[in-house]
Amino acid sequence: DSGVTQTPKHLITATGQRVTLRCSPRSGDLSVYWYQQSLDQGLQFLIQYYNGEERAKGNILERFSAQQFPDLHSELNLSSLELGDSALYFCASSVAWGSGNTIYFGEGSWLTVV
Amino acid sequence: AQKVTQAQTEISVVEKEDVTLDCVYETRDTTYYLFWYKQPPSGELVFLIRRNSFDEQNEISGRYSWNFQKSTSSFNFTITASQVVDSAVYFCALSASRRGGGADGLTFGKGTHLIIQP
């Protein structure tokens, strides 16, 4: 158990809909990351927050947005969903935001868009 | 740009054999960090090791060992006396410092699917 908690674990929704994925980082970690894992793209970095502020952005679509709240939990919002958005979405956390920090991953949220 | 290459898509060995998973990386940064993660069939990503670019010492943890060679830009992972429970997808990843600190997240390889047959 990495200490990173993600909900829901599984989600099935229709095209065009909007979903929110939730993440609680490990106790003491200030940095939260979101990653997407799909068969064709592999593991891709989406976005990083540190202590409530956006720190780095990866291949995140404009239809997707995220935020980190004062209690450090984070949410990833996916809107106007398409079939290709079906993937495993990971939240991860680390103590700080530098490249040398070990990043611990949650169990992921499986999103299926039908 | 950073890149991580895991050329072995799938490896199948019989239990108790030793197996090495290859990882080759590319980065222009002088300070960077290399990671290995394990993804068992259940799906979670489990952290195995972190190595910084200034430390080329090999690491051993039980049946696991890692060989970091800057000269060949490789960070290979060996499992000795493999067990069925080692069956998983293994990912090598790279993180490098940006100017002003921080990083743009981990760059992952495509992963190697390791199958240990009983």
Task: Please tell me what the overall shape of chain A is.
Answer: globular
Uncertain regions spanning at least 5 consecutive residues of chain A: none
What is the mean predicted local confidence, pLDDT of chain A? 94
Number of helices of chain B: 0
Radius of gyration of chain A: 13 Å
Instruction: Provide the helix percentage of chain B.
Output: under 10%
Strands of chain A, count: 11
**Average pLDDT metric of chain B:** 91
Sheet/helix structural class of chain A: mainly beta
Helix-strand category of chain B: mainly beta
Return residue spans of chain B where pLDDT drops below 50 for at least 5 consecutive residues: none
N-to-C SSE series of chain B? EEEEEEEEEEEE
Termini separation of chain A comes to 31 Å
Rough shape of chain B? globular
Per DSSP, the total helix count of chain A is 0
Find the count of extended strands of chain B (DSSP E, 2+ residues).
Answer: 12
What share of residues are in beta strands of chain A? over 45%
Rg calc of chain B = 14 Å
Lay out the secondary structure.
The complex is a heterodimer of chains A (114) and B (118).
Chain A: E1 5-7, E2 10-13, E3 19-24, E4 31-38, E5 42-50, E6 53-57, E7 64-68, E8 74-78, E9 87-94, E10 104-105, E11 109-113
Parallel strand pairs in A: 2-11
Antiparallel strand pairs in A: 1-3, 3-8, 4-5, 4-9, 5-6, 7-8, 9-10, 9-11
Chain B: E1 3-5, E2 10-14, E3 19-21, E4 24-26, E5 32-39, E6 46-52, E7 59-61, E8 64-69, E9 74-79, E10 88-96, E11 107-108, E12 112-117
Parallel strand pairs in B: 2-12
Antiparallel strand pairs in B: 1-4, 3-9, 5-6, 5-10, 7-8, 8-9, 10-11, 10-12
Overview of the molecule:
The complex is a heterodimer of chains A (114) and B (118). Chain A is 0% helix and 53% strand. Chain A is mostly beta strands and 114 residues long. In chain B, the strands form three sheets. In chain B, strands 2, 5, 6, 10, 11 and 12 form a six-stranded mixed beta sheet that branches. A four-stranded antiparallel beta sheet of chain B has the order 3-9-8-7, with no helix packed on it. Classes of the chains: A mainly beta (114), B mainly beta (118).
